[in-house]
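This entry is listed below:
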Amino acid sequence: MGIKLPGTQRNKTILLVICTIIAVGIIINEAIKNNKDTNVVEQSKVKIEQQTKNSEISANKTEVSIDEKTKKLDEEYSKAFELFHSKKYDDAINIANEIIKEDSKNYKAYNIRGIAKAYKNRNLDEALADIDKSLEIKNDYGYARFNKGLTYELLGKYDEALTWYNKDLEVEEYVWTYYGMASIYGRRGDVDNTVKYLKMAIDKDSDVKKAARDEEDFNPVRNSDAFKNLGI
């Protein structure tokens, strides 16, 4: 049995049309709302992607800037290194000072400044302060360990020099570390150890023989058969 709605057929039709219009309006409104939500999401995604891109660009610029600074300081260090080996100690120290102003953790600059001071004025405290600072930053830096031994040797503190030369050999096999040890034993007239370490140096670099020929430190042992057998 059907249910009869009150009112005329015309009123029923009008009511149906109104309900239909309302339903369609609701559907359209929801569609518009969903479209807005979708746009907001898309806009947010675009914004996030742009922020990420900008962050990556900024990071890349920072990385390039750091690389350029490192390259510049390395070039300056190379100049200081060459100046030191040219016996221009003041110039080497000045460049090292500038490097340290730019990078207070530059262990290479502290090291080269320290050994330059050692040769310039034979001041143990000043030289070792810089070399120790280098080793504080990088404990296994072989060149600083070698230079600490060399500084002690320059000042006649041979036991301390041998200690640090041996510490250098813990991290590298540097030809002039062997040579330095040989020269100390040569001064002491210790033929066996002089020959032992000098041979190690020669095995690493045969040009060491040229330096050894005029090395006064080897005079106390130069006439021994073992030393002569090195072919110097």
